[in-house]
Specification:
- The chain is an all-beta fold.
- It contains no helices and 8 strands.
- The protein has one domain.
- Helices cover 0% and strands 53% of the residues.
- It has an 8-stranded antiparallel beta barrel with strand order 1-2-3-4-5-6-7-8.
- The two termini are 12 Å apart.
């Protein structure tokens, strides 16, 4: 079962939204990275001007739809990084849901 952590709106090649837990809420922006290598992230994650992580575009095996696999590290989330995924909402085409599942990410 996946835990809902927030929703994001896609605008052009960027995503903006809110990551929310029981103890805090933070505005997050995912900004596309230009160029780079195959293993480089496709997006950088920011809280304000502070970089807090990165995201890679992945393709789901069953649905063959694209999603973002994130790695976020902030002491408010604990001492280790968290690995949520950002998936497109089935109900709202421009909304993406930030989810964490029991398998630590995707």
């Amino acid at each position: 079962m996946a835990t809902f952590l927030g929703s994001f709106i896609k605008t052009g090649e960027a995503f903006s939204g809110k990551l929310s837990t029981l103890s805090f809420s933070a505005d997050i922006d995912l900004i596309a990275v230009e160029g780079g290598s195959d293993k480089a992230p496709d997006f950088r994650a920011y809280h304000g001007s502070r970089e807090i992580g990165a995201a890679w575009v992945k393709r789901a095996r069953r649905s063959e739809s694209d999603y973002l696999s994130l790695k976020i590290q902030d002491l408010a989330l604990g001492s280790l990084p968290v690995y949520p995924v950002l998936v497109q909402s089935e109900r709202e085409p421009n909304t993406w849901n930030l989810l964490m599942n029991g398998r630590n990410g995707d």
